[in-house]
Amino acid sequence: MLVIMHPDATASQIQAVCERVQSLGLRPHIIPGSLSTAVAITGNTGALDAGVFEVMSGVSECLAVTKPYKLVSRHSNPETTVISVPTPLGVVHIGGGSVAMIAGPCAIENAAQAEAIAQRVQRSGARLFRGGAYKPRTSPYSFQGLGEAGLNILAGIRERFGLGIVTEAVDNESMDLVERYADVIQIGARSMQNFSLLKRAGRSRQPILLKRGLAATLDELLMAAEYIVSEGNPRVILCERGIRTFSDHTRNTLDLSIVPAVHRRSHLPILVDPSHGTGHRHKVLPLARAAAAVGADGLLVEVHTTPEQALSDGRQSLLPDEFDRLVAEVGRILGVLDRTLN
Ligand code: PEP
Ligand code: MN
Fold it and tell me: 181: which residues sit within 8 A by CB, 6+ positions away?
């Protein structure tokens, strides 16, 4: 960390900063500048709390030199992580040259609904089926998911159609159950900073699909991933699902620029969810194409056979024919990039 002093900081204020650094068992290095002096700090093994120095008189600001996350950073592990998800239809690889297609309804509503959608997305080429049995809803009066009954329907989908299952755990109790049914456990945007859930996910043996919070920075997303990896689960898949901005033509603003940013800072794969990222059916295909072009390691797409009757997120769910077209077009874009859909 660099502690930048005010241009008019006194020698004793600079000395006080150096003594505070030493009191923490670290080494201060005074760097005189043309306008102001900086004190560089070395010897720390983890991130330093800038607040310790910012409150001292004569200090202008503190600049972090190293990132606060370690295990998920590309520095610590330059090799790109490829996550293998075994399914009855074969292993799905997420990361590197492989691009995963995950599709299904927002929520599991009943067996017939889930089966009709599973049949169609499987025929289109998806190998991973998404669908929530536990739904984190803004309103307590909205459909909350079928719970364990929904997980049982998902187990049937896996058996009948050979699809791997991606489904959400909303708290530590649901995680205990979800873990037994899911091939990939989703942690939703609203739970991105539920630290006890993140730690619990870190003790799971299943891959974790971690969605970006509605107002989370990239560093906050990576710190959330660090919680999971530091507890012992290295299989984390990040997911951009749109953030809150002032744009009112879209449910959320899909921040596609995070994809190359993640690839630079981290070795973890990142998916893009153009369904929650836009909130409107007509925007899903264009943004899915863009996500493939920008280098996403997979897509998470909501599909429904009767979206007008869906219990959640019908407005943003693609019809199966539209999903078919999405797979075909995304496949063509990936071909140009020497990447393959799986
Ligand atoms: C979902 O995937 O259906 C979902 C609830 O997503 P998010 O957490 O991104 O809102
Ligand atoms: Mn949804």
Answer: 133, 151, 152, 154, 155, 165, 167
CA 45, CA 52: separation in Å to the nearest integer? 17
Radius of gyration of the chain (CA): 23
**Would you say the CB of residue 298 lies under 6 angstroms from ligand 1?**
no
Ligand 1 atom with least separation from CA of 186: 2
Give the ligand with the smallest distance to the CA of 241.
Answer: 1
241 lines ligand 1 (CB under 6 A): yes
How much is the pTM?
0.91
> pLDDT tens digits, residue range 177-231?
999 999 999 999 999 999 999 999 999 999 999 999 999 999 999 999 999 999 9
Q: Distance, CA 320 to ligand 2 centroid (Å)? A: 16
* DSSP class of 308: G
Q: 106: CA distance to ligand 2 center in Å?
A: 4
- Which tens digit of pLDDT belongs to each residue from 27-66? 998 999 989 999 989 888 888 899 999 999 999 999 988 8
Rounded to whole angstroms, the Cα distance separating 37 from 26 reads 19
Q: Residue 123: CB partners within 8 Å, gap ≥ 6?
A: 324
